[in-house]
Amino acid sequence: MQSPTVQSISHAGVIQAKRVTSALRHSNPRAATTIPEPPLARFLFADRRMAWVWLIVRVYAGYEWFAAGFQKMTGTSIDIGTFGQKSTPWVFTTHTGAAITGFSKGAIAQTAGQHPNVQGWYASFLQTFVLPHPAFWAYLITFGELAVGLGLIFGILTGIAAFFGVFMNLNYVLAGAVSTNPILGFLGLFLILAWRIAGYYGADRYLLPLLGTPWTGSLVTQDVAAPQASGQADDIQSSLPRTAPIK
Questions:
Q1: What string of DSSP letters covers 172-204?
Q2: Would you tell me which of 41, 181, 199, 217 could form a disulfide with 158, CB atoms 3.0–4.6 Å apart?
């Protein structure tokens, strides 16, 4: 014989199992087209109260990108740890492209061994597309880093700037260059998630409402159109004939 406590627990378990079975039977996964964003995610990535946090993150990441591009362009470091040190510029020299050629060859050399630092397919990409056109890639990387840095520092299309920054981080890591790339890539991913508010204390405060998104269009146009539509409705309402109440 089971005790009353055991019997009540068993009965409650049977009832709960029936409720779960009934819920599964009547569920319709296809009816749910979207999953609501969790409150924590909305607070972190869409609440303007968190904009100051992303300001700090983006200015730090932007400074690192701008310093890297500035050194490639001028040969002078403005990084805090190596400020003022000289190096060979990547661009605007008689040997433009020499640095990217050396970088690419060094990456290709890391494909040897049982556990290579650089994958063979990426080495093939460097061999086929980068080494034949080193000057083009030198200018593209240099001014790409400068553009990402300025975009993040001043909050100009922050999400797009962060995306291209992460894309370059990924390529550097694939080429065997670790350095600060994992850190900047990690921060960049969070800036992409927070694109709606990351540039609020910057140009995006005005650019995002003006440009809108591909799926909304300009938000400024919508804000202007709404009062106009309301005014037109009032005009139509006032033009309708008034009828005397029925007594």
A1: HHHTT--TTHHHHHHHHHHHHHTTTTTTTTSTH
A2: 199
Q: Residues 5-57: pLDDT tens digits? A: 555 656 666 677 777 677 667 666 666 667 788 999 999 999 999 999 999 99
Question: What's the predicted TM-score (pTM) here?
Answer: 0.76
Euclidean distance between CA atoms 51 and 178, whole angstroms: 29
Phi, psi of 65 (to 5 degrees): -70, -45
**Owning domain of residue 49:** 39-206
d(CA 130, CA 124): 10
Q: Report the sign of the C-alpha dihedral through residues 196, 151, 160, 163, in that order.
A: negative
Residue 135 near residue 96 (C-beta atoms within 8 A): yes
Q: How many domains does the chain have?
A: 1
Q: How far is CA 122 from the centre of its chain?
A: 24
Q: What's at 242, amino acid-wise?
A: R
Alpha-carbon span 181 to 179, nearest angstrom = 6
Residue 92 amino acid letter? F
| Domain-located, residue 233 | no
- Per residue in 128-182, pLDDT (tens digit) is 999 999 999 999 999 999 999 999 999 999 999 999 999 999 999 999 999 999 9
3-state class of 217 per DSSP?
Answer: strand
Mean pLDDT on 226-234: 50
